[in-house]
Design brief:
With 355 residues, this protein is of the alpha/beta class. The protein has a single domain, classed as Aldolase class I (TIM Barrel, Alpha-Beta Barrel). Helix content is 41%, strand content 12%. An eight-stranded parallel sheet has the order 4-5-6-7-8-9-10-11, with helices on one face. A two-stranded antiparallel sheet has the order 1-12. Helix 2 runs parallel beside helix 11, helix 7 packs parallel to helix 9 and helix 10 crosses helix 11. The longest helix has 32 residues.
């Protein structure tokens, strides 16, 4: 449960508290739109010719080993209440052997004294940890400032989040998105750790992925529509009536995976599938469609709120087992074999792709 004195914190902390409170206590999902992964049919085998014990979904991502291909998506940072959330998640990721992304470092760049709300290396010395900055903030900070922040938290990578829809919902939002592909390219060239680009829950299109393919980023996290709607979150926070109009804006996760795969076109860049992925079955479908990694955020946050790191560990173990069983039922021992699987698309997903 979130416990805090709301009137004794800064404006930055209030924003972080509001986001956490809304995500755990309100309906912040898409209203009608789904990931469309329900329209992906896999090639079930009643005689897989392998043992379940042979399934090994271990992998590597941007130089770090993962026990299975799961990256906890960015959740929070910058408020004292964020510290416990991040530490609980990091403890669980360390035990399970996966990675996590931290919330936007904007607050820490402005106030380095709150570094401890992001720093998790004391409980997670070995795992992949990604720092995070909003693409619009690349106009405000130098490469050196962002690099310094990454070093403070001992991050392995930088995630640049692209979130035009969310920013448009915020009265204080940064909505100048001019020439940001050039900024992404600059940071990818000059930052001292690998850089990847992620949405926040509304998907990345073929056109955007094509532009990103020309930069030196190392991965694209599609974070598609169908899970948490950040237009919904910030419209609730600011009580904006037009927020409901844009609640379902974005590209479903399944579409975004397929379009990004086509756009990257064997460029060597990795694809992370997040956005409404709630089961190991959906995760395997995402990998079959072309993803290298999967992840989510809201289920992790809810598990943390319910039972701390123990709740997260239990959730992740179940998720991993679901992925292993699905792989077994396809006769696949590893991720490479999953990515060679045939699949069938039906319904709305088929209609969308045919357009």
């Amino acid at each position: 449960m979130l416990i805090y004195n709301y009137f004794m914190v800064s404006l930055t902390e209030k924003r972080k508290i509001d986001h956490l409170k809304l995500c755990t206590q309100k309906d912040v999902s898409f209203k009608e739109k789904t990931t469309l992964l329900e329209f992906v049919e896999l090639n079930y085998s009643c005689l897989p010719e392998i043992s379940l014990k042979e399934v090994d979904l271990s992998t590597s991502f941007l130089g770090k080993n993962f026990f299975f291909p799961f990256l906890v998506s960015a959740i929070t940072g910058g408020a004292q209440i964020s510290k416990k959330v991040n530490l609980d998640i990091a403890k669980a990721c360390q035990e399970i052997g996966i990675g996590l992304g931290l919330g936007s470092m904007r607050a820490m760049i402005e106030n380095p004294k709150i570094k401890d709300t992001y720093f998790v290396r004391n409980v997670a010395p070995d795992i992949f940890v990604a720092g995070n900055i909003g693409v619009a903030q690349l106009n405000n900070y130098s490469v050196q400032q962002v690099d310094d922040a990454l070093q403070l938290i001992e991050a392995d990578a930088l995630a640049i989040h692209v979130n035009s829809a969310q920013e448009a919902m915020q009265p204080e939002g940064d909505t100048d998105f001019n020439n940001l592909i050039q900024k992404i390219s600059l940071f990818a060239d000059e930052i001292n750790v690998p850089v990847y680009v992620k949405e926040v829950g509304h998907g990345i299109s073929f056109d955007v992925s094509k532009k990103l393919s020309q930069t030196n980023i190392k991965a694209v996290d599609v974070q598609g529509a169908g899970g948490t709607s950040w237009t919904r979150v910030d419209s609730l926070r600011h009580k904006k009536s037009f927020g409901e109009v844009f609640r379902d804006i974005g590209l479903p996760t399944a579409i975004s995976i397929i379009e990004t795969k086509n756009a990257l076109n064997n460029s060597g860049k990795k694809i992370v599938a997040t956005g409404g992925i709630r089961t190991g079955l959906e995760a395997v479908k995402s990998i079959v469609l072309g993803a290298d990694m999967v992840g989510n955020a809201l289920p992790i946050l809810k598990a943390q709120q319910k039972n701390g790191s123990k709740g997260i560990i239990e959730y992740l173990k179940n998720f991993k087992k679901e992925m292993e069983i699905t792989s077994f039922l396809l006769g696949c021992k590893n991720i490479s074999e999953l990515q060679k699987q045939d699949f069938v698309v039906l319904g709305k997903l088929k209609d969308w792709l045919q357009q």
